[in-house]
Amino acid sequence: MATFARPTFSAKAYAAFRPSYPASLYRTVLSFHQQQRQARQTTLLDLGCGHGLISRALCPHFEAVVALDPSAGMVAQARETTAADESIGDAEKRKITFRAGHAEDLCDFVPAEASVDMAVAGQAAHWFDYGRVWPSLVRAVRPGGTLAFWGYKDNVLLGAEQATEIVERFVREYEVLTGGFVGVYGSRDMPLYGFGEVAPGIEGMGRFWEQPGRNILRDLLRSVVPPEEHWTDVRRLLHEPGDGGDAETLWLRRTMRLGDVERYTRTFSCFTGWREAYPEAKSREEGGRGDVIDVMWDRMVDAVPEWKAMGDGWRDIEVVSDWGTYILLARRR
User: Fold this and answer.
1) Which pLDDT band, with edges at 50, 70 and 90, does 11 fall under?
2) DSSP state, 80?
3) What Gene3D superfamilies does the annotation carry (predicted)?
């Protein structure tokens, strides 16, 4: 999770352009938590809280929220965004305590054993060291309490598969042993300019993904299994991008303007690493000749005739973006 502590990472841009979570998602996790007749809603633990989105959404349902993130920049952004949020009152805001901290070591943040009623992690659980996190959560979460982890992976632009494939080419990892690019769909049809290049003289972003978190997320957290001796009622809700589903699984499919999708691609953690490796490559918005994201979007627009026909107005075109998603639920024995 070191990406979010890097000087090139923008917590403000992350907060502005990352997708939010719908009310249906919160209903799903709260419904699971409340299934037991004596379910308590005293303390919520928000792990990897980022800019505080989940803490703000769920604070009306709990008496106190402890929100942790390893990135001091994210914690500062969470405090700033929460203070400015007019959708919740001051009394609700005072319930939330934002602190810099790790899921692997909760002793300083949850001093009393079995004092957490619900532990959640949105788009953060793929970073955890589970050899340390499971013991940490077992100590913190009371019997009958719950955990809810959820997140999303590579999105597709429905009806614009050629543009989605170009994104795939620019972010896919390169496997030295097989000599080919490996992506979401396993295709290996990318024209080769040079080792790791996606355009002449431009390296792709693939090698800048942090592992093993990237692969854990791409597998929708299937490899993360709550230990049976401490957790029961385990439930998974999975959605692969482009597939069908119901209200519980299709919680991150939405209509967006292409300009907002472009901004979203600039929040990719692999792009943060790419920018550190190539600080001289300034975006056009910064007055430069263009960075890897600019080149990627040039290719995407050229690949879709309807987009290209719009000229400079292509950013106003609306598309349906569909992310692969997971929700992992479990109850403490």
Assistant:
1) low
2) H
3) Vaccinia Virus protein VP39
DSSP state of 190: P
Encoding tokens for residue 321? 């973006």
Domains and CATH numbers, the chain: 2-154+211-253+323-332 (3.40.50.150), 158-209+254-321 (no CATH)
Strand partners, 319: 256
CA distance 96 to 51: 12
3-class DSSP assignment, residue 314 = helix
Summarize pLDDT for 230-284 with one digit per residue, the tens: 999 999 999 999 999 998 999 999 999 999 999 999 999 999 999 999 999 999 9
pLDDT one-digit tens code per residue, 184-227? 333 334 445 566 899 999 999 999 999 999 999 999 999 999 99
SS (H, E, C) 107-164: CCCCCCCCCEEEEEEECCHHHCCHHHHHHHHHHHEEEEEEEEEEEEEEEEEECCHHHH
Q: How many CB atoms lie within 10 A of CB 42?
A: 13
Q: How far apart are CA 270 and CA 276, in angstroms?
A: 10
Provide the token pair at 84.
């400015």
Residue 88: is its pLDDT beyond 80? yes
| Average pLDDT of the segment spanning 309-322 | 98
Dig out the tokens for 212 from the structure.
């093993």
CA distances (Å), origin 126, targets 213, 221, 270:
5, 7, 15
First to last CA, the chain: 30
CB atoms under 10 Å from CB of 280, counted, come to 7
187 or 302, which is more confident: 302
pTM: 0.89
> Quick one: DSSP state of residue 22?
-
Alpha-carbon 9 to chain mean position? 14
